[in-house]
Design brief:
With 181 residues, the chain is α/β, with parallel strands linked by helices. Helices cover 45% and strands 17% of the residues. It has a five-stranded mixed beta sheet, sandwiched between helices. It has a two-stranded antiparallel sheet with strand order 1-2. The longest helix is centred in the N-terminal third of the chain and has 29 residues.
Length: 181
């Protein structure tokens, strides 16, 4: 490395160059990840688990709006939002056109299982979620949790920030909460 004894000027330039290269690498890895995933359906996978431990297939969810819910037990905003989403889910579920798929960001199977006990919807199996989570997060530009993404029945993104819609629209009358970004 080049070092200047006067002001460290060259060292800062090297740090900026290194940061730029790291950013380019991150972008490249993200693009490779998205290309490998292909479609939203590929990234989600074909099987999920419901609260009874039964397998639910993606095919059985055709024709429904899907909420892709990123959260974790260790996250206090998630623990506050999950019951609100569960209440909305139960209202919308009556019309049989909505399902939520939980993407766990928990650190262990035990934490995920304990948290999932509070949820009335399906989840990506914890054993599989770790291999899919970065692709899903990149695909939907998830930067924090809790995040709720809404997909239409054709797997098009309707809203990337439906959390605020759920909190605002307490009776679900504005569902599917289309956002225009």
């Amino acid at each position: 490395a080049v070092v200047s004894t006067q002001s460290g000027h060259y060292g800062r330039g090297l740090n900026i160059c290194t940061a730029f290269l790291k950013m380019k690498l991150f972008v490249l890895l993200t693009l490779v990840s998205l290309a490998a995933a292909g479609t939203i359906q590929d990234a989600l996978g074909s099987e999920f688990i419901n609260g009874n431990g039964e397998v639910v297939t993606l095919d059985s969810l055709k024709g429904k709006y899907l909420g892709i819910y990123f959260s974790a037990k260790w996250c206090s905003p998630c623990r506050r939002f999950t019951p609100v989403l569960a209440s909305m889910y139960n209202k919308l579920k009556a019309n049989d056109n909505f399902e939520v798929i939980w993407v766990s960001r928990d650190r262990s199977q035990y934490e995920a299982d304990k948290y999932f006990d509070l949820m009335p919807w399906t989840m990506i199996d914890f054993a599989d979620v770790q291999s899919r989570v970065s692709t899903l997060q990149n695909m939907f530009s998830v930067k924090w949790i809790p995040t709720l993404v809404i997909l239409d029945p054709d797997f098009n993104v309707v809203s990337k920030n439906a959390r605020s819609d759920v909190e605002r629209d307490t009776d679900g009358s504005d569902f599917p909460w289309k956002s225009y970004w």
